[in-house]
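Ligand-bound model needed. zinc ion.
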Amino acid sequence: MMISNALVQLADNIWIFPHDPNPGRVQPNVGIITTPNHTILVDAGNSPRHARRIMIALDEIEAPPVSYVIYTHSHWDHVFGGMVFDSTTVAQELCRKQVSEMASRPWSNGYIQEEIMRNPSREASLQAMSTVIDDWRNFRIVQPQLVFSRVMRLYPDDMLIEIEHVGGLHAPDSAVVRIPQARTLFLGDCFYPPPMHLRKEGDMLNQPMMRMLVRDDLDIYVDGHGDPMTRDEFLKLANGEGNPVKTTE
Ligand SMILES: [Zn+2]
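Prediction:
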């Protein structure tokens, strides 16, 4: 199976390291914002290996050093690459709480097998985790250092990056990241139904939330596990047309 190791440019100063369409790998899009002196990542990748591939791709476009990593929410596939980046990690306060709870666990392949026995419905997600993380001994979860409750604005080199807590059923800590100058919105997984192991029959995309997030000044909509969308495509999905994304996390 072909996996992409190249960045895809979406606008001036905006890129993604694209998601892996194989749901078994649970590899989300990672957003990249560049300014003259800083690179800002939206999510950290699902593993140190994923994050290192992103670092190589950043080198190829001669991106400035990574100054900030923003976690859109605390699910492992958006957080577990964090240790590769020597930067400040930004997150909503509930996300920080959940990440520090995860960091207190004795991660190892043995621990994952025990977790599967305790929670059989999480098997797919946890198996994916043990596939993408090959070295637990040197593994470390990076906890957010810069925390906000409702909105945070960063101005690296005067470019506005606005992070807003939106919550939702997928993850109550979900935040979205707006870059008005690039007319881009990174959504993480905020409008998805709950993760597979918590999903009930009838759970669907959070269409009212999606419609609330559409704005005339935003043209590019990037969710966690799908292809980037135009405003029209995102609106169609919000109105019940188009194919919802499949993901376990
Ligand atoms: Zn998620």
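DSSP finds seven helices and 13 strands in the chain.
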